[in-house]
């Protein structure tokens, strides 16, 4: 996987000569100054390169992705710490043209530039390039750029105790955290000062800063892409963020972002299940190939069950308070018989069960001790249940203290919920409708249906929408919908039946002004009137989108 870093320079080094930084023409490009790309007097670029990809050659240190190929772009002039936006943009284009899928930038400044914003957004959207940048070392709450652009992943720093580094800037654009205090990596030979590997001037040393944290995450991205080359940039980013170790406040916060990057868990997330672990354990810097293995499914388990048994499957994703959740599978004809159960879960984790059980009638019950389900303001929990190899119920976790689902070979007279048939069987199985319903919806035949499908991004608290019926001049509009307090990266469906002669206005707000665009999730919305799509958007709007609809407008 070709990883490009935009920096001062990177010295030739014994721990980099197998990663493309060997002096070949294809391995580098420079915009500024007269020195060669490998004349790194400051050591900053060399240190970054080592964190990403120092080779596993029994000497020195090992990078996060030791087999990654590097492409260096010399952005700063000689020993200068100053450069122009145009040079940064050109540097990014050079990385793209070289075939890089990852750009890492241990640099930044306090002022945004519209041209930079557009370029990095385009690199992500159109070229599938993940760009990482340092969150900044000012210690305050101001954002730093390019890290805070929509198309760039902002990386904060933590110390060896997983505590937020005091110098690391903290703000709502921070995406992820990584080690950034006293990080041991490469330095130009003769430039090592302390904490080196083989003595003074050995070419190894420590450094601190969000500049040191950023290449850790870029290295994990390279590791993931080498493991699954066909993955999209969004899949790689989601694997990194969703698997991060949650630190600080529950969920994403301004200090740690989504949490501390975790390479192994990110691999498992990207794989969709456990990994085949090589002998000696799974090390992120191991030269042993990691194999993807399929996860166990109900259908594969079906072949293993006895004739008198059927496969039962359950997947639960907990919210921010996993200890509140528990579940039971009860023999409906003998409620004292709890066949299976689960409790004591961790926060924001996914659990799976696949069991062969007797072909009886069952009631699945999921409980939440805080009476707020698995969703909404406390995380994006969910669950799905399968019986006989078929999915019976799927829920986004919207319930209070408990939710029950009946399934299996039951007496139809006992059913008190809508039923579905499994595998052509005449035996009914009760189903849970996971689609949120709108209290304003009606079924009046003399009305016209207005529908909305709304998918949030990763900052759902920024969003609110209304549907109002516009009245005659001087009269107040009649409010039909007014919704907020959504969960992260969830899809909601709404429907209401209204007067066909009316004029209606739909307004969707984003308080931050970046719409629902996919840099912060795959947000979108689709608005329909009488079955026809009136407005459909991938979320690329600013503070507000406003639509009038109806024959009376």
Q: Count the strands? A: 27
For the largest beta sheet, what order do the strands appear in spatially? 2-3-1-4-5-6-7
Assign an overall shape: globular
Task: Give the count of helical stretches.
Answer: 7
Strand content: 25-35%
Low-confidence stretches: 19-34, 190-201, 278-302, 412-444
Mean pLDDT: 77
Fraction of residues in H or I helices: 10-25%
As a whole number of angstroms, the C-alpha radius of gyration is 27 Å
Q: Which structural class should the secondary elements be placed in?
A: alpha+beta
Spell out the blueprint of helices and strands.
Layout: E1 2-7, E2 28-30, H1 44-53, E3 69-74, H2 85-97, E4 102-105, H3 114-127, E5 130-134, E6 152-158, E7 174-179, E8 183-186, E9 204-207, H4 210-227, H5 233-242, H6 263-271, H7 298-302, E10 309-317, E11 325-331, E12 338-342, E13 350-358, E14 361-368, E15 382-387, E16 390-395, E17 402-408, E18 419-421, E19 428-430, E20 448-455, E21 463-470, E22 478-483, E23 491-498, E24 503-510, E25 524-529, E26 532-537, E27 544-549
Parallel strand pairs: 1-3, 1-4, 2-3, 4-5, 5-6, 6-7
Antiparallel strand pairs: 8-9, 10-13, 10-15, 11-12, 11-14, 14-17, 15-16, 18-19, 20-23, 20-25, 21-22, 21-24, 24-27, 25-26
Helix pairs in contact: 1-4, 2-3, 4-6, 5-6
